[in-house]
Amino acid sequence: MSSTGTGWAQLRQQARSLESQTETLFHTYSQFASVPNIPAKSSEDERSTESKLQDLLEKESQDFSDCPQRETLTAQLSRLLDSEATLTASALKQNNLSRHKEILQEHRRELSRLKSQIQDARNRANLLSNVRSDIDAYHSNNPEAAEADYMLGERSRIDNSHNMADSVLSQAYAVNESFGLQRETLLSINRRITGAAAQVPGLNSLIGRISAKKRRDGIIMGSFIALCFLAFLYFS
Question: How far apart are CA 77 and CA 85, in angstroms?
């Protein structure tokens, strides 16, 4: 492999390594915007992560012998590509260089978005904190107003309890009405069956015999159970 090819491979390896490092820092930095109670001022870890991202994305290295930042790496790759004469290799490397530039721009936009998101979250938290402080100070200086707010809060809770009770009663009335409708439906069905049975000759007597047989079987079964129970008591 030529010295130019070796230099290109080394620079591309460094570029991919820095891109991976940037992604890792993005993951860490994005977590500062999702904390439940974001602090009013940025923490040391947040400032350190943001500084590392800015060094990678927004600054050029002044010392090429050291690990160069991504803008410097892109410039070095571009100069190295301009010095090559092979058209086929240059076309492929040109695509690689363009992709590194695109990723760099995407990461810069992502850094700007995350910074705005964290700042917006911190502004909202500070605003809520200031509002709570103002309310607490107002209540401290106006005990009558604090008492009135307390009474209003109690009334609101009582009203909510009443609304819940009304809702439960409404459901109970609806269930009771549904039971009444079902009872009327069953009575109507019973009347229809009775009317139909009266119109069929001999059906009533058949139903009567079936009912008498059921009563007789019930009496026999009850007598047998009573006899067994008495025998059990006698022999025990």
Answer: 15
